[in-house]
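Final report, Chapter 2: Outcomes

The project's central promise was a pipeline that accepts a single protein chain and returns its three-dimensional structure in a standardized token representation, suitable for archiving and comparison. That pipeline is now operational. To close this chapter, we reproduce one record exactly as it appears in the project archive, with the input sequence first and the structure output second.
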Amino acid sequence: MEFSAQQIAHFLNGKIEGNPDAKVGGFAKIEEGRSGTLTFLANPKYAHYIYETQASIALVNDDFQAERALPSTLTLIRVTNAYAALAQLFSLVESYKPKKQGIEAMSYISVSARLPEKEVYIGAFAYIGENVQLGKNTAVYPHAYIGDNVEIGENSIIYSGVKIYENCKIGRNCIIHAGAVIGADGFGFAKEGDRFKKIPQLGNVVIEDDVEIGANTTIDRAVMDSTLIRQGVKLDNLIQIAHNVEIGENTGIAAQAGISGSTKIGKNCIMGGQVGLGGHIKIGNNVSIGAQSGIISNIEDGRSIIGTPAIDVKNFFRASIIFSKLPEMYKQLNRIEKEIKENQSR
């Protein structure tokens, strides 16, 4: 499938500089651009590649200013945000891909499950439990397990090997990647003498609309009520979300993060990889947490923090500079201490 620069510019509401009839049939990174591909420039660090790329079309931001001549074979399309425009094109291409339909042999579907008559896909060896409700255009890939009383909204995708325990609710337009586990028991035990006694986990997990959950991520059911993943949340691979956690709208969390039980995370937060949050704390709205940070207390709205225990980003980098100088500072202090003792003994 090919698109011309004119078609792409019209779709993106962009401005063409070059040949409006230039055509592309694929995408390429700017440093690997080939004839017949579309690339983009969003990060100034990659600007030098645009003068050498062999790509036929490049998306650039409106404020891009060429410092020297561009390749004669390159057509620019200026847009407000090149990276966001590229995402729009990816979505366009994705929409043209054929979607799986129908119910494959060897899948199990309970007679009490409620499925759309036509607009659904159930892969081989998938299990659909009692009273499950699936919305239109839902896809459940092979070897997925959908427990009793689960609800899944329209246009959601459940990839191979996903396990959704009983009574959990998944919204519309959600994507749950392979190996994710939704609704396993939270880590709840009471100490009786030298032994642990299990506390039954009687709640569920509620995932609202437009949520994406990465491969092998786990979200535990609540002790009571619900573990809540609000609308628009994006979770990377290999994340642990404990029981009774609440994650606010449009928050993004990178891989290997761990969120302890009953912690509340606000809206529009960003968390880097391997962030660890202690239990029963509250993270405000619009908080940014750097990779490998450890959080053990409440964080107010709008803060940017990093480190273990986490501190403001600016203070962390100042401290990092000092930390690298500590060995020499230690030697200097020893010399000063020695000189003081020698002067005192005279």
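Archive annotation: The radius of gyration is 27 Å.
This record, like all others produced under the grant, will remain available to the consortium after the project formally closes.
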